[in-house]
Amino acid sequence: MTTNSPIRTRTLLLAAALLAASGCLLIVFALPGAPPPDRAVPLPSAAAESPPDSEATGTGTPSRPASVGATPAGALPPPGSGPAADPSVQRALERAMPRDLPAGLSSRLATLSRAVWAAEVTGIGRQKWPRHFTQPATAAYTRVRIQAAVARRDPHQPGTKAAVVHLVWAGADPSGTYLDGRPATVRFTREGATWNPVR
Fold this sequence. Notes:
Layout: H1 6-30, H2 46-49, H3 53-57, H4 86-96, H5 103-122, E1 142-153, E2 162-172, E3 178-191, E4 194-198
Antiparallel strand pairs: 1-2, 2-3, 3-4
């Protein structure tokens, strides 16, 4: 029976320890999500660590942009912008639907459609068009405002005796929910010199 010398025993133990350490490192770097051995893990940026303005200032009020610029050309104003934004809505609608009616007629039909649609959603003024409003109003909107209106030829009825007006309006429904940017259309047919709304 042979016995190992103390030097040889220490060498074997050291080699075993090195192999065990190497194996542990390989297991760690092979785990999912472990960083590669030659790359440092990126630290969060200072911006990511800093608290929101409301916490940093101690006011408890979220910060707001310093100012909101003018609505870019072709873009609709954000919801809830109020009557001041209606001209922007009108311009956007006109750009989206190029004019195909004489300017005077287009303006006249747009004005007429505003009254017809207001009567449609509020129930007020329906007596002006008894053939159009044959049923009593069932649900009345309040705080109604027509934001924009454009009159165009009716694509479903070619010729010069039909037109359709595209509207954007705001109002509170019977439950009290107020929204702007609501779309609507009113169709018209010409009878002699008179334009009448039709369903």
